[in-house]
Specification:
Layout (H helix, E strand, L loop, with lengths): L1 E9 L3 E2 L14 H8 L11 E4 L1 H15 L12 H7 E2 L4 E6 L4 E8 L9 E9 L3 E3 L2 E4 L6 H15 L15 E10 L2 E4 L12
Antiparallel strand pairs: 1-8, 1-9, 1-10, 2-7, 3-5, 4-9, 6-7, 10-11
Length: 205
C-alpha cells in the first residue's frame, strides 16, 4: 500500500451541514432554532477545532475519476473510475486549524426536504469558513496501477470541478473549491517528493 500526503488550499468558502438532533426549546420557532443551533452543523474535535471528514476528500477524488472518465493506457476503453473507487481511502478526518467560533453564519433559502427543486422552501443557517485554509490529508492507495502522476492529476481536477462540503461546485454551488500545492508520495522503500503543482488544465495520463 502507498500513501499520498497532499497539501491543498481551499480557495473558496467551505460550508458544512452535519446532521444534528439538538432538541427545540419549548415553543421555539423554526427560525429561532436555526439561529441558535447553526454551529452544530460543523464537524469538530473535542477542542472545538473544525475537521474535514476524511470521507469527503476521498469521495471528491473518486467523483472526479468518474466525472473525467479518462481511459487507462493499454486497457482499451477501461477508465480510472473503478481503480479510484475501490483503491483510495482517507482514514482520518483532517484538521482545518480553525475553531468553530471562527465560522460565520450563512443564511440560505433552501428546499425544506433537502431535495433540489422542491416546491417548499425555508430559511436555514449554515456555518462557513472563509479562505484561504490549508489542509494536509493522507490518501491511502491500495491499487498499484494508480501512479503519482495519475493521482495528482485527478486530485487537481477534484479541487476545481468537484470540491468538498455543502453547496460545492459539483452540486451547482460555489463553495469548497481547492488547489493542490504539493503531494508527497510514500512507497515501501521511502518517500518520493513531487514538486509543487500548479493547475494548468492538463490531465496527466
Amino acid at each position: 500500500m502507498k500513501k499520498a500526503i497532499a497539501t491543498v488550499t481551499l480557495v473558496t468558502p467551505y460550508c458544512q451541514s452535519r446532521f444534528h438532533a439538538t432538541p427545540k426549546l419549548n415553543k421555539e420557532l423554526h427560525d429561532a432554532y436555526e439561529r441558535r443551533t447553526w454551529q452544530e452543523r460543523l464537524h469538530t474535535d473535542e477542542k472545538g477545532q473544525v475537521m474535514v471528514p476524511g470521507m469527503a476528500l476521498a469521495n471528491a477524488i473518486k467523483e472526479a475519476a468518474k466525472f473525467l472518465s479518462i481511459q487507462v493506457p493499454g486497457k482499451g476503453k477501461a477508465t480510472w473510475t473503478k481503480h479510484f473507487e475501490a483503491g483510495i481511502s482517507v482514514l482520518d478526518d483532517v484538521p482545518t486549524g480553525r475553531h468553530k467560533d471562527e465560522a460565520l453564519e450563512k443564511r440560505m433559502f433552501v428546499p425544506s426536504d433537502g431535495k433540489r427543486g422542491g416546491g417548499s422552501r425555508v430559511m436555514k443557517s449554515y456555518p462557513i469558513l472563509l479562505p484561504p485554509m490549508t489542509l494536509q490529508p493522507t490518501f491511502y492507495i491500495q491499487d498499484d496501477s494508480i501512479t503519482p502522476e495519475v493521482f495528482t492529476a485527478h486530485l487537481q481536477q477534484a479541487g476545481m470541478l468537484i470540491g468538498i462540503g455543502s453547496f460545492r461546485v459539483r452540486n451547482n454551488g460555489t463553495f469548497g473549491r481547492f488547489e493542490v500545492q504539493e503531494v508527497n508520495w510514500i512507497e515501501d522503500e521511502g518517500v518520493i517528493a513531487l514538486p509543487t503543482i500548479r493547475i494548468n488544465g492538463a490531465i496527466a495520463a
